[in-house]
From TrEMBL:
Organism: Desmospora activa DSM 45169
The entry's keywords: Hydrolase
Keyword Hydrolase carried by entry: yes
UniProt keyword annotation of Hydrolase present: yes
Protein name: DITPase
Pfam families (UniProt xref): Ham1p_like
Gene Ontology MF term list: nucleoside triphosphate diphosphatase activity
Length: 193
């Protein structure tokens, strides 16, 4: 089964393929530039992206949105994650969190349009941000918080883990697997676990 993924983020595309290929789903790149609203929830953003793709006449597609949330600030940065990081970078993030709680979580959602039917899947990954700015830290393309984020139950950041190790904690892996089961039900086949 082929599943077009409307994203320009190569890291997200790689992760989707890593999770879905063994489940019999061939993730096909659909590199569309989509407008991302700056209000609402992560799920609201995925629904808006899905609407934009649907308006282009596409009937089978997956879209994705994600953000990091700092426990020290209500609903922030959330859907503004990319914009905030682009403007203040690591230096600004560490200044913003100086003297604050380091608890944080990633929240992600996937929305799928499949022959007129729509479903949204969402999940969280809880953890904390490093206390100190790591020397020489560079953003991982598409995932700038991976070098700073330590999931609950770990002592390493996402950037220090292999893709398979990350998958154990990844909200995206969880929603991709849920989406795979939903798609296979639509297609009349069973997903391998």
């Amino acid at each position: 089964m082929k599943l077009p993924f409307a994203t320009t983020n190569e890291g997200k595309l790689r992760e989707a393929r890593h999770v879905l290929t063994p489940l019999g789903i061939d993730v096909v790149s659909l590199p569309l530039q989509l407008f991302e609203p700056d209000v609402g929830t992560i799920e609201d953003v995925t629904r808006e992206k899905l609407k934009q793709v649907k308006e282009r006449g596409i009937q089978r597609v997956m879209v994705d949105d994600a953000g990091i949330f700092f426990a020290a600030y209500s609903h922030f940065p959330g859907i503004l994650t990319k914009r905030v990081f682009e403007r203040i970078g690591y230096k600004g993030i560490f200044k913003l969190l100086q003297g604050e709680r380091r608890d944080a979580w990633f929240e992600g959602a996937i929305a799928i349009l499949w022959d007129g039917e729509v479903n949204t899947f969402s999940a969280h990954t809880y953890g904390r941000l490093l206390e100190e700015y790591p020397p020489g830290v560079t953003p991982e393309p598409g995932f700038p918080f991976n070098p700073l984020f330590v999931p609950v139950g770990e002592n390493r950041t996402f950037a220090e883990m292999s893709p398979s190790e990350r998958e154990q904690y990844s909200y995206r892996a969880k929603v991709l697997k849920e989406a795979a089961h939903w798609l296979q039900e639509r297609n009349g086949s069973k997903v391998a676990d």
